[in-house]
Each structure stands twice: as structure tokens, then as C-alpha cells.
Amino acid sequence: MKKYIYKNRGSALVTVLVVMMIMMVLGVSILRVSVSENTFAKHNEEQLQAYYVARSGAQAIAEYMIQDGNDDADDLIDAGFSAPNSQIGNGEFRVSVDEDATTGAIVITSEGTFNGKKDIVKIQLEESLGGLFDFAILAKNIISNDGNGNGATITGGEIASITDEIDLNDKVVYEEGHTSITDLPPIEEPASYDGDLSDYTYSGKEKYGYLINVNAGEELILYASSVKLGNDNEKIMITGGGEVHLYVDGVVELKGSITADGSKLYIYAMGTDAFSMAGSGLTFTNVGIYAPLRLVDYNNSTGNDPSKVLDGIIIAKDVMIHNYTTIVYNGSMDGFNIDTSGVGVRYTGYKWIN
């Protein structure tokens, strides 16, 4: 037995030496792996920091745009990337806010940088329900017809009531929308006017009324104690391609047409007097009506003539429609001089899209 052990002493030593060499090699490998993992971990940590910096930047801009009641944040849209901002830890971010040309969605892109590592994230803002000028008809309270709304049609835009009081029979063709607006803002009367509507009195062959010319890119601010067009020979005609903003204190009674081809007429009906548009085959082209304290009564029997319509928008406390009344809205009558801050939130939230 002793002899056997003696003869195997050399092989045991060799085994120990081999194991020691393996352990040495393995130790170097483990050290290399450890150093590599530390480097990788550091790289990952810096990349992760860049990601969180980008997220923080995007989130900060999204929250600002959601809480912005004055629509100042709209100036950021399509303005390109901002200058780098270094207010988040040791990193910095830059953002751009863009409107998708196809969907109209507002997307915030934020690029975060930390120790030379970069990451990009995107947020899409979620818009609130329709705003003040997004509907063919918007009423604070009731939109109704008198049971004789045969064939009345509202096209090119939805109708909405702030209090959800739409009472139209099944003979009226329309699409119902909804709004997050809580009230109609008041009319703020201008400090001064460019003139009185009576300054533009016109009388011609078989036609009379008012003829107003205002150049494209310009606006004219006028006052009227009341507006009465007695029949369809009495008209308001606006030419030149500009805008007329007409503030009316008293009764508005329109039995004649308003033509503003290429131009726009915005009527601000102050107070609580009557506002009626009543006739047969009347045409109201590019007309916006804002009457937050009035009932607007629209009774225009068109006889199914597609040209005899109100091409514009009605915003009022209450709206009553009759007969073959047709309203066409293309979304262009949004130039009212009305302070919309605080009437509703344009953006209600956001979602991460990458």
C-alpha cells in the first residue's frame, strides 16, 4: 500500500499544478468579465439616464401644454427643436413639437443626453372634445326645432350643447358632437370702433342695404345699435377679402341676405335682445354669429336650393331652427375676437408612442 502511494506522489503534484494553472487562467478571465460587465453596466446606466432625461423633458412640455389656458404653447408647434436644457440632473434635453400632416396629431419628440449617450422618446397629446369654434352650431343650452324642421340639414360640422340639451326631431339631419367647454365667454366691447354700420349704407337698382369693402389681411371693427334687413332686396355685402367685426347692441332682424364671398363677417350680438334670421331662400355666406346671451332663431325656407344656406357658424345661448334651413360649416370661421382662455382645456392628456 505504501508503495502505491509513493509511486503516485508525482501525479498528485502535477494535478495540483494543473488545477492551480486553471484557476489562474480562470481568475484572469473572471477579472476580464468583471471589468467588462462593469463597463457594460456603466454604459447601460448612462443610456438609461439619457432615456429618463428624455422622458422628463417630454413630460414637462406635455404638462405645460395641457395646463396652458391661453394657448401660448401653440407657438411651440412646428417651431423646430429647442435649445438644449440642462435643468434635469447632469443631463440635458431638447424637444420639438410637431403636428402630424396626415392625422393632425400633436407629437412631442424629446432627445435626452447624458455623458454623451442619447435617447429619444415621443409623446402624443390627447385633445379635448371640440372647442368654441369647432361646431356648425354651439349652444350653451338648447338646440331645438318647433316640430316643423322638415328637411333641416346641418352639414360639414357637428352641433353641440354645453348642457347636452339637443331636442331635434328625426326630420332634422345632423351629427351630434360634444364639447369640454363649460361656458360661453362674454363679449368684450372694443375700446374704439372704425365706424358705424350706417356709414356704409348703399342704395342701388332694386337693391339697398350696406356695402363694405375691406382689403385682404385687414379687419374693420364696426358698431350698430341694431341691424334690420327688411326683405331680400336689402342686403349686407362685403368685398375685398378682409374681415368685418360687427358689434350690435340691440335687435338683429335679418330678412335679407348677407354675402361675404372671399371676406368674412363676424357678428357679436351683445345683450339679450332678439336675434332672428327669417325669410325664404336667403343666403348667408361666410357669416359667424356670436350671441352668448341670446336665442338665435333661424328660419330660412330654402326649397332645397343648395345655394340658399348659412355658410358659417352659430354660437349662442339657445338656437331654434325651422323648415328647410341648411347650415354648412367648413371650419374656417374661427377668427372671432373672443378671449377663449379658461373656457375649456384643449389638451386633456398624453400617451407615450415609443
UniProtKB/TrEMBL annotation:
UniProt keyword Repressor present: no
Domain (DUF7305) ranges: 213-334
Keyword Transcription regulation (UniProt): no
Sequence ranges assigned to domain Type 4 fimbrial biogenesis protein PilX N-terminal in this UniProt record: 9-54
Protein name: Type 4 fimbrial biogenesis protein PilX N-terminal domain-containing protein
Record keywords: Membrane, Transmembrane, Transmembrane helix
Membrane-spanning ranges: 12-31
Organism: Alkalibacter rhizosphaerae
